[in-house]
Specification:
The chain has 133 residues and is an all-alpha fold. It is built from seven helices and no strands.
Length: 133
């Protein structure tokens, strides 16, 4: 969780919105918060969370934009999760070709990521090698 200069969590208000079930307002607030932070210092993680909220709200175009922002190479701890989420979104939208390229990038760029097995499975599915589960 990103913290301010005083050591206090920056996202208390955003978390309160989530607890209240206001995903639309929480995603907007998280995106605004992320815009003021470098990717490697919490910005990527906040964009990923906001993107997931937007996707759950049916706003896939906005979610795609935030997943792309979260896939920043400066945040290698978050980028694989963002790339996998983006690939899954693309597959769901019938854009398997784009998803294949993204999944191949994830596998080659972050070979030590715990998400590589999932990425391999989704890659096989996107290529039609195995049935989708």
């Amino acid at each position: 969780m990103p913290v301010g200069a005083d050591g206090e969590p920056l996202a208390d208000w955003e978390i309160a919105l989530l607890e209240q079930g206001d995903t639309a307002q929480a995603s907007t607030a998280l995106e605004q918060l992320a815009s003021g932070l470098p990717p490697q210092h919490g910005g990527a993680e906040l964009n990923l969370l906001a993107g997931r909220l937007l996707l759950s709200s049916g706003r896939s175009a906005d979610a795609e934009r935030l997943f792309r922002a979260a896939a920043a190479p400066e945040a290698p701890g978050t980028a694989p999760a963002a790339e996998l989420a983006l690939a899954e979104l693309l597959i769901g939208r019938g854009r398997a070709g784009e998803a294949v390229s993204l999944l191949e990038h994830l596998i080659l760029t972050y070979p030590q990521s715990a998400l590589v097995p999932q990425a391999r499975r989704r890659l096989d599915e996107a290529k039609g090698a195995v049935p989708r589960t």
